[in-house]
């Protein structure tokens, strides 16, 4: 057999996108169901912070979730503008609770049991330390214009707890009422000086040099107000809409990852703070050395199990420019760019990040290998200082076409070899 022909056959076989054969009964996709829910009500006054956990309603049974969208609304169901109530973040994750346990899970008592045999968080497949970024869904101010839809026949499987457990769902809402505040931007960035705090939510002294972030804008704190400003409290809800399908052989499973740009890549079973730090600061630029005033943070993180990328999006805060993800060989995998509002209506608030672009590559066209080192880059404007910013990358991969890093490198070598042979034929004599 001709050597060139053999290489060509091998290259085609290795490069052919793998996809499981669908059952004959799966010629028609399952009917998508949809329902809108509301969290328990919470009340906020000017300058106040709400950062609570709620057990929430969720579709019952073994299902595949296709979409999860949320926003803050008032008593009439009207969207509330970010300029009044800033949504720092919301996250939703399931947990498995022993059937014998009581349902009093909000606040400290619940967190004391997380990770124990009584309450287990199955969580996503992300690589952060235990109980850090365990959510399947979660965004912030950008929630109204960021899609969470899982395309095609793919879905996130939930509702199948171990025997003796039941599945419940927890929502964490962190919101800041900035009406009448002295420095709204500083309030939503949780500047410690504006909240007049020196200890964190657990009563521990703040770390030396800590200027702002989650440890300064917790439940019960209040941001500095303009003298004499008064306004009534608002009764608010987190309204969320879920789309799902019943789980059957027609649904293709996925794995959800969350990568944190602040991950130190170190793990310490004694110190849970070692690993993903969740937030970081962006120092103000020196225009003489950085005329574009762009602060870029990079990291290289290993993905345990690869597959085809089905969906990707970043989560960032005010001042964000976007995040990118590249493979170990430098190929571009996904970029998520910040969208800013330019008006005053909910979803178009000037100066706020109101959306993040998403990636929906055709399944099988953009893949990562098991054990591949991914390169993440986060960009923020540093024209002014920003405190307590985040840079998370959500990635959803198919669970049916994984390759090892060794197989992936073989694919790349054969691909380039194929290209060389093809070019050599173009220049061969007649």
UniProtKB/TrEMBL annotation:
<dbReference type="InterPro" id="IPR011692">
    <property type="entry name" value="Stress_up-reg_Nod19"/>
</dbReference>
<feature type="signal peptide">
    <location>
        <begin position="1"/>
        <end position="23"/>
    </location>
</feature>
<dbReference type="Pfam" id="PF07712">
    <property type="entry name" value="SURNod19"/>
</dbReference>
<protein>
    <recommendedName>
        <fullName>Stress up-regulated Nod 19</fullName>
    </recommendedName>
</protein>
<keyword id="KW-0732">Signal</keyword>
């Amino acid at each position: 057999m001709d050597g060139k022909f053999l290489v060509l056959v091998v290259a085609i076989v290795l490069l052919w996108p793998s996809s499981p054969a669908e059952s004959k009964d799966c010629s028609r996709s399952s009917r998508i169901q949809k329902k809108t829910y509301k969290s328990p009500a919470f009340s906020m006054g000017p300058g106040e912070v709400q950062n609570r956990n709620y057990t929430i309603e969720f579709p019952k049974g073994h299902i595949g979730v296709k979409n999860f969208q949320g926003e803050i609304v008032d008593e009439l169901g009207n969207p509330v503008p970010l300029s009044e109530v800033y949504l720092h973040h919301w996250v939703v994750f399931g947990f498995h609770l022993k059937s014998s346990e009581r349902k009093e899970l909000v606040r400290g008592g619940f967190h004391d049991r997380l990770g124990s045999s009584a309450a287990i968080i199955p969580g996503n497949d992300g690589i952060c330390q235990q109980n850090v970024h365990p959510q399947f869904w979660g965004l912030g101010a950008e929630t109204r214009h960021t899609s969470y839809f899982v395309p095609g026949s793919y879905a996130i499987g939930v509702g199948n707890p171990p025997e003796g457990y039941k599945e419940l769902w927890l929502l964490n809402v962190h919101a800041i009422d900035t009406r009448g505040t002295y420095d709204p931007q500083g309030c939503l960035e949780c500047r410690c000086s504006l909240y007049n705090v020196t200890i964190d939510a657990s009563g521990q002294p703040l770390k030396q040099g800590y200027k702002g972030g989650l440890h300064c804008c917790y439940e019960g704190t209040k941001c500095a107000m303009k003298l004499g400003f008064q306004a009534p409290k608002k009764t608010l809800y987190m309204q969320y809409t879920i789309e799902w399908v019943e789980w059957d052989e027609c649904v293709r499973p996925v794995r959800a990852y969350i990568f944190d740009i602040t991950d130190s890549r170190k793990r310490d079973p004694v110190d849970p703070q070692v690993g993903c730090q969740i937030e970081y600061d962006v120092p103000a630029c020196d225009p003489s050395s950085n005329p574009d005033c762009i602060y870029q943070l990079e990291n290289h993180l290993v993905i345990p199990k690869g597959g085809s990328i089905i969906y990707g999006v970043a989560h960032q805060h005010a001042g964000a420019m976007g995040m990118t993800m590249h493979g170990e060989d430098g190929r571009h995998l996904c970029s998520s760019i910040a969208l800013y509002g330019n008006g005053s209506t909910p979803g178009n608030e000037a100066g706020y990040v109101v959306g993040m672009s998403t990636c929906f590559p055709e399944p099988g066209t953009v893949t990562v290998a098991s054990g591949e080192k991914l390169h993440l880059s986060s960009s923020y404007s540093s024209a002014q200082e920003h405190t307590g910013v985040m840079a998370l990358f959500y990635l959803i991969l198919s669970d049916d076409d994984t390759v090892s890093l060794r197989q992936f490198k073989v694919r790349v070598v054969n691909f380039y070899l194929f290209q060389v042979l093809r070019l050599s034929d173009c220049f061969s004599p007649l």
